[in-house]
Design a protein that fits this description.
One of its GO terms (molecular function) is G protein-coupled receptor activity. Its main location: membrane. Residues 6-210 form the G-protein coupled receptors family 1 profile domain. A two-stranded antiparallel ribbon has the order 1-2. The protein has 9 helices and 2 strands. By secondary structure, the protein is mainly alpha-helical. Helix 4 (59-91) runs parallel beside helix 8 (151-192) and helix 8 packs antiparallel against helix 9 (199-209). The chain has helices at 2-16, 25-41, 43-52, 59-91, 95-98, 103-122, 146-149, 151-192, 199-209, and strands at residues 131-133, 140-142. The chain has a single domain, classed as Rhodopsin 7-helix transmembrane proteins (Rhopdopsin 7-helix transmembrane proteins). The longest helix is centred in the last third of the chain and has 42 residues, at 151-192. The chain is globular, with a radius of gyration of 22 Å.
Length: 210
């Protein structure tokens, strides 16, 4: 309920002020869409199965649940990664360069994120990797057990882990460390200035820190 209400509030706000949205804010909207999709398509089944102490439905609903989880999960992860990269680029670019991040550019990026997520989500359906029940039997996901007893499952899980988890996570960490270092250096510059000749210079530095 909190997930749906919170993300719905984000989407409602975005619709009300759509003409005022800055390009990077579209990624926040995309993240809200992915999280809302996950909540609506997965949580009811998961909650009902938990109360039932067993998965409700057969193989079809299991594949559906795992597919939705993988699709929206990868989309959320890649959206967070894109947000970190854009924030890093804006922080480390001049005003003229940061203005090059247009709405059309971000829309193309969002389209790529969804296509990338969809590709990984349907791969188990076409023969690379598998979907199956989780160990407790009340939800479904990637068949992690195939990592050890199937070369197909091993190659899929390893590739997915590297390209959908490790690489995006390292990119996010690197970008935010870069932003933190930039802010730290700007703060040091301010601390080293004994006397600032005019207010504009101070305002510029404080804006950079913000």
């Amino acid at each position: 309920i909190l997930t749906i209400l919170g993300n719905s509030a984000v989407l409602a706000t975005a619709v009300r002020r759509s003409s005022l949205l800055k390009p990077p804010e579209l990624l926040t909207v995309n993240l809200a869409v992915a999280d809302t999709g996950m909540a609506l398509s997965m949580y009811p089944l998961a909650i009902a199965s938990a109360w039932n102490h067993a998965w409700l439905g057969g193989d079809t609903s299991c594949v559906y649940y795992a597919l939705m989880g993988f699709l929206f999960g990868v989309c959320s992860m890649m959206t967070l990664c894109a947000m970190a990269v854009i924030r890093f680029l804006v922080t480390n670019s001049s005003k003229s360069n940061s203005d090059k991040i247009t709405k059309s550019t971000v829309c193309i990026l969002i389209a790529f994120i969804w296509l990338y997520s969809l590709l990984w989500a349907i791969l188990p359906l076409v023969g690379w990797g598998y979907y199956g029940p989780e160990p407790f039997g009340i939800s479904c996901t990637i068949a992690w057990s195939k990592f050890h007893n199937s070369s197909n499952g091993f190659s899929f899980i390893l590739s997915m882990f590297l390209l959908c988890t490790v690489l995006p996570a390292l990119t996010i960490v690197a970008c935010y460390l870069g932003i933190a270092w930039k802010v730290h250096k700007a703060y040091q510059e301010i601390q080293n200035i004994d006397r600032i000749p005019n207010a504009a210079k101070l305002e510029k530095k404080l804006t950079l820190v913000s």
